[in-house]
Specification:
single chain, alpha/beta
């Protein structure tokens, strides 16, 4: 995938946003996926291995994958804003780099919550074809329920033994909305040793 990765910058609400674009090489892109990374204050960047795995899964399924650094990370300007500004960053990437057509939103950990907030914000105004939330940080950001119509388009994956975001917290968020959660047996927050399985689950969802 590295041979088709392009680093670029775009204008964001707090200044420059640093981003990476991964394109499928063998066919025209099926759509654009925007992928959000883990918590900036705990070392989260767009180079995170789970985020890379999500990008690879989207490219393998024929999508263009866009990763970006939240404000204050890498070459992205601005300061951490506890989710509010980070949501604005993700929406800015969608507005600037996701042309009309199929759109997917995805994220890992803190980025999963930001992606969920982006779904809530964009759903009334733009179709979202696929949603992938991994290790979603529901205990850190107040995450609204996904729209009922989005459930068939959503894949929520969580590690059984996640000690950063307890599985019970995700189940408490999912239960009132009857939203299925795919649990990876023995999986931790970063899915060490299980990234190929994670990629397989995501590709299967994207191809369904």
């Amino acid at each position: 995938m590295n041979s088709q990765t392009r680093r670029f910058r775009l204008a964001g609400p707090a200044g420059v946003i640093e981003a990476l674009r991964d394109e499928p090489m063998d066919a025209a892109s099926k759509g654009t996926a925007v992928i959000a990374h883990p918590h900036p204050l705990f070392g989260g960047t767009m180079e995170n291995k789970v985020v890379q795995t999500l990008a690879r899964a989207f490219v393998l399924a024929g999508w263009t994958a866009l990763r970006f650094n939240f404000r204050g990370v890498g070459a992205t300007e601005g300061q951490h804003d506890e989710g509010r500004g980070e949501l604005d960053d993700m929406l800015a990437v969608v507005a600037a780099e996701a042309p009309p057509g199929p759109l997917a939103l995805a994220g890992f950990s803190f980025g999963g919550s930001v992606a969920g907030l982006a779904v809530d914000k964009l759903w009334p105004v733009r179709a979202i074809d696929k949603i992938v939330l991994v290790g979603t940080g529901v205990s850190r950001l107040m995450l609204p329920a996904l729209p009922a119509e989005a459930h068939d388009r959503a894949l929520v994956i969580h590690g059984e033994q996640d000690d950063t975001v307890p599985l019970s917290a995700v189940m408490d968020w999912a239960r009132p909305q009857s939203l299925p959660v795919t649990v990876v047996p023995g999986g931790g927050h970063f899915f060490h040793g299980q990234l190929p399985l994670l990629k397989s689950l995501v590709v299967r969802h994207l191809r369904s």
